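Usage example:
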Amino acid sequence: MSLELRGITKTFGSFTANDSINLRVETGQIHAILGENGAGKSTLMNIVYGLLKADSGEILVDEKIMNISEPSDALSAGIGMVHQHFMLIPVFTVAENIVLGHEKTGKLGVLDINTAREAILKVSKDFGFEVDPDAIVETLPVGVQQKVEIIRALIYEAKVLILDEPTAVLTPQETDELLKTMQELKSKGTSIIFITHKLREVRAVADQITIIRRGKVIAAVSPQTTEGELASMMVGRAVDLAPVKHKHSIGDPILVATDLTVRDALGTAVVKKVNFHVNAGEVLAVAGVQGNGQSELARAIINLEEHIEGSIKLDGREMRGESIYGSLHAGIAFIPESRELDGLVGSFSIAENLILDLHDQAPYAKGINLSAGVVLAEAEKRVTEFDIRLQSVSDAVSTLSGGNKQKVVIARELSRPVKVLVASQPTRGLDVGSIEFVHERILAERDAGRGVILFSTELDEVMALADRIAVMYRGEILEIVDSNVTREELGLLMAGVVNKKASA
Amino acid sequence: MSEIRSNIQKRRLRGVSVISALSVLSLIFFGFVSPGKDKTTFGFVLNNEWVILKEWVIAAATGARIFSLISVIASLFAILAYRKRAQIIVPVAFATFGIFMSFITWAASGKFIPFTGLLQGALLLAVPLVFGSMSGLICERSGVINIAIEGQLLASAFVSGVVASLTHKTIWGLIAAPIAGAAISFLLATFSIKFSVDQVILGFVLNVLVIGLTDFLYKKLLVPYQATWNTAPTFGHIDIPILSKLPILGPILFSQSVVVYLMFAIVATITFALFKTKWGLRTRAIGEHPTAADTVGIDVNKLRFKNVMIAGLIAGVGGAYYTVGSVGAFGKEMTAGAGFIALAALIFGKWSPLGAVFAALLFGFADNLQSTLTIIGVSIPSEFMLMVPYIATIIAVTGLVGRVRAPAADGVPYQRGGAH
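Running the assembly step on the lines above writes:
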């Protein structure tokens, strides 16, 4: 089945999310749509799937114009979608989820779950999935949940399958498996629209690549295009994909964690007796799949967690039990995982956000007064230094884009005398250009002789920046390896497979 | 997985500890520290059911010791079950029963306890709570918080009383009541679903509205013109053949007014429909993850609207129980907070129909025990007796009920486009 979009335009107020987009997906083709966050990829797919209504334009399936205004219209036209955030009911079983919306009933209106159960087992067998129809969805690993979504699309005979950022939540192994499944689907005649901003994956499976920037189709290219070319088309300028890591000498241990355990509110250990250290002038990356205790470990370093056991020494001084304020002012800079939730006060101005940590100190404070003039002047300096794009430093920080928000956080955290920088997922949700900036900043700190602990789930980022890599799995550090480890070895470690040869 | 398991064990440990401590305390206190000095008489006959045992007389001290011992033994079984990492619900239920009986035997020393009447009264007090909690259940399972249960009950009690008075027919009162309940639901649904008004505040405002309106009409209409407006007839008891003759259970369950039988039917229907039918699957889906339901082609807000309306109809029948179902005449604010207790029963029952019914029965029982003991004149101060239902609730909620989890999207208005 072929799918064609003609002149799709969608505006939200004065913002044009999609600007007369044309696109054609052939039968049995994997068509990648590449673009930065906010380029309009998801809006476009939500239009195709009937979740949003286009202002103008046509959707053609097998050369026929379709009127798709509800998801049910898309489903009956043979369009299935696997959303970035899964559309599964967490407390339902797999079979109940599959049945939902397509219920068949028997006597007395009793739901027929058995037919779905058999269908699930059949599709699972065809594609070599291992999915238990009676498992509760929330107990399943993310990769399996995604398979449930794919199974659902297949059972309802989707001929065009939209995959919206499907690899964002997967381990490298799960990603490989998904790419294999995509090839298999293609060979059975299913067309796939693959939305992503990950260049490697696109080049691995796509037959055709469409690049979208600021709501417009910029180019339609073949997968032979190099990553550098793809990236610069996405961003609109030349991008340095691999930041230059200067060789330099690494100093003495500056932060040492010994038998560090972090418990949640119920007393369950989420970080289990981890030991690591970071040297001055070194980037220690903590890699791992989301949810293996990295977030808690990062927070524990500045005492943001409630229940911490063990020891964290900064330059020989015990930091455990210190207040958060004390940790920050002892020389730890912290870039939290969520800039909106933990990094910034959204309704405060940019200038105020830049001194959140220093508001009580000279020169910003005089007695009980805040010196507004100094605050503004200092903010202007920071804005220039960190290239923060804004209208005025007095605007609310929530008006900034994600990349600029992150620059505000980084600018603030590096304005204190810093010995160690703890960065938790510092590039999550940022576009390629901002990622480039953050990476440069992190390496600059390293080169200036500070210790950097980088928590990241992005394999590419870890490989590009780290001097050493600690892999976390289920709350433990499985191994600490050198940066010359291969992607495959790292991927296996992240999945919990300990490979003796990879040890450093 | 092991974490989930250990959390279950933690919860069980808490339950086992609470029940064991209570059993031992009950044995010590009711049995030995302050034993009853007289005999306690239990009555088991209410109407004309078949009789196995008419009365049972026992020395209060001995009875309290026996029942406390039962609960201690049951607690030991609970500990054994806990160690085997098995369900503890059955022994805990036995232990609870033992503690209750021990307390009653002790408290009623020298008196007559109409045991069957105690249970029957508990059921009757629970009837509006059950209807109210079913209304809340259907709303909240669909993702709409219903604080307006009190208003639904009161409005429908008023309307059914007035309609039955004017028509002199109980059946018209019973028909009019759900319409009144649904009218309140219509306001709740329109503002919360169409206009995304905060549901807790909205529910409260609706309650105040109904209280004000019924108070006003009661004062201006029902009191001065009582003969025409507030003399509703009531439904008589219908004895179900044979079943109503069963000893103990017969008069409690099968010699009741039509409203009580409707309650049995509604609870059974909801339990079946919620877990076995297409409607139930969709209702649970929109209460948990409305966006997901939308993407498979379910019209979330339409189904929510429909369900809130159904909930109003159900609460309406419960409201009719106050007037045509029992006393006939409408009284000022006669629901007296039952809507909120119903809400508590819903949460206590973990948003499951049978759980809510069980909780409502427990509340009804504690309430009725209090009034029965006060009536027969036990030596405990009545102020203390009034606390019993709430103490029972607090112990049950903190010690025995585990983590309760509301439907994930409960109280969150759904608007498409939060998706992009």
